[in-house]
Each structure stands twice: as C-alpha cells, then as structure tokens.
Design brief:
With about 300 residues, the chain is of the alpha+beta class. It contains seven helices and eight strands, in the order βαββαβββαβαβααα. The chain has an eight-stranded mixed sheet with strand order 2-3-4-5-6-8-1-7.
Length: about 300
C-alpha cells in the first residue's frame, strides 16, 4: 500500500504574493544548503504546453544529498548518488516526481495546488474516492509546529517575526483562523518503496523528511518577506537565475572533489606510473541549462 499524505500549509499572504516569495525562498535556501557535495545539478529547464493545464515550466534536476540521510540508509547506498526530480509547474497547480539513481522501486509523486483560503477545501486536488480513503490530512502550522533544534533560528521564527514592509506578524496562537490575507498550499504526497522488509520504515522516514522540509521552507518564505515583498516576477526570476548559477558552481566543485577523492582511494593501492598532467578540456562542465533549486515546494 502506497503511503499517501495531504499536507495543508497556510501562509499569511495571497497566492500571488506566495508565488514570488516561494521563488525567492527556494533560490536562497538552495544556495545556503548546497555544500560538501550536497546540492542541485539542473539537467533541463524549459517551457512546456499542456492540453489541460496550458503553458508551464518543466525542470529536471539531480539532488545530491547523501549526508542528509540517516546512517542506516547511508550504509545501504554508494557514497555518490542522487535523487532525480522532474517538475511540471502550471502555477497555481504543479506536479513533481522523484526517483532514486540506484533504487528503481523507489518513487515520490506530489500534486500541489494553491488557494486563497485557510485549508478548508476538502478535495482541492480532485482525488478519486479510493484516493480519499487512503489519504491522511496533515495541517502544518509554520508558527507553532516544532522544528528540529539544528534548523531553528530566532530571526526565522514566525512567533517573533514582524514584517516592516507588510506589517504582518508576529503570528499568534490560532492565527490560521483569524489572519487576513491567508492562503493554503495543498500538497498530496505519495511515497512508494517496494523493497520487502524496508518498505514501511523508508516510507515513514521519507514522509517525515518531506514534512520537515516543508515546515522549514515555509517558515523562511514568511520571515524573509521583507527581502522579496517589493519584487516583481521579473525581479525574482533575475534573482533566482543569479543565485542558481552560484549554487550550480558550488555543487559542481564539491562533487568533482568528492569524485577525485574516491578515485585516489582506488588508485592508491595500485602501482603508479608518473603521468604528464593533462590540460583541462575547454568547454567542460555542467549543462548550460538554468538551475532551479533544492527541494521543490512548487
């Protein structure tokens, strides 16, 4: 049985404001979290036209995150691996799929829709009666749900933050029932891991990890509001492109260093013949596609 959860994350803003805040947050968060071989390598970023959803943006990227996994998972995988993300963004509706580079029976699929309400739409994503039976609704409170200590920053705590530009915040207990404006991200997440003996443990872990990422990212989107509040969509796209270029370079250098260390470990045990150093090939590097970001909240 596939583990299915619908996360409902309310935000003290409109759907249109969230679009800019989300792009800013993902670009900045991606850059800050990319280090030591962890981060994002983008393979494709292009416009698509769907018969049902219209014009949208398709992205495909590789997310390198070995050290973010628990030790019992790290012991089962190679040191260099990645998760592939494919996303179709038809804002305010998106589809995102994740697969693992070496586990063909592992996948995550996410449907997302944004509405200007506080999470009261019972079937926002148009699930079937069977899907509704399997669905578990989880309302995420960006202000009062606990966050892991190593992620906590007082300046990013919605209980204390007040936006100078919008006048919003701090968020008080029960804010989702009283605050205006308010919008909600409805995310239906399906996790599938068809490996006997590990299925339940892995699926539970992945859902918990996704919830933590969603909680942290949406806290940041709100508490960074004064950084993006005056931006237009063109402004934030330019910021996104700038930050993503920096992120791609940082990840590329880290991954190359890790790969070189692994090669040296193998070759050090064998007799070596001195070689003349070769000059770097021109034009080498990552694909020239624009990069997007870390985990996709879209």
């Amino acid at each position: 049985m596939v583990l299915t959860k619908e996360y409902r994350i309310c935000m003290p803003m409109t759907v249109e404001e969230y679009r800019i805040g989300q792009l800013y947050m993902i670009a900045r968060h991606s850059y800050e979290q990319s280090t030591n071989g962890e981060g994002v390598e983008v393979i494709a970023n292009e416009q698509v036209n769907d018969e049902v959803n219209g014009l949208g943006q398709y992205t495909e990227k590789r997310i390198h995150l070995s050290s973010h996994l628990p030790y019992w998972v790290q012991s089962l995988i190679p040191k260099i691996f990645y998760v592939t993300e494919k996303a179709w963004n038809y804002y305010p509706y998106t589809i995102t799929e994740y697969t693992c580079s070496f586990i063909p029976k592992f996948s995550i699929s996410i449907q997302t829709r944004y509405e200007d309400n506080n999470g009261t739409t019972e079937n926002c994503l148009g699930l079937t009666s069977e899907e509704l039976e399997l669905r578990e609704v989880d309302a995420v409170d960006i202000a009062y749900d606990e966050i892991k200590p190593h992620h906590y920053k007082e300046v990013e705590d919605p209980k204390f933050y007040k936006s100078e530009k919008s006048g919003r915040g701090p968020l008080v207990e029960g804010w989702r029932d009283t605050h205006l404006p308010i919008m909600c991200c409805y995310k239906c997440v399906n996790v599938k891991f068809e490996v006997w003996g590990l299925q339940t443990r892995v699926e539970d872990y992945v859902q918990a990890a996704i919830r933590e990422i969603l909680l942290l990212g949406h806290r940041q989107a709100f508490t960074w509001m004064d950084e993006w509040y005056d931006m237009t969509i063109d402004d934030v796209r330019n910021y996104e492109k700038e930050m993503q270029e920096k992120t791609n370079m940082k990840v590329k250098v880290c991954i190359e260093n890790v790969e070189e260390l692994e090669k040296n470990k193998v070759s050090s045990s064998q007799p070596q013949t001195p070689q003349t150093p070769k000059s770097p090939k021109s034009g080498s590097g990552t694909p020239s596609a624009e990069v997007k970001s870390w985990f996709s909240w879209s």
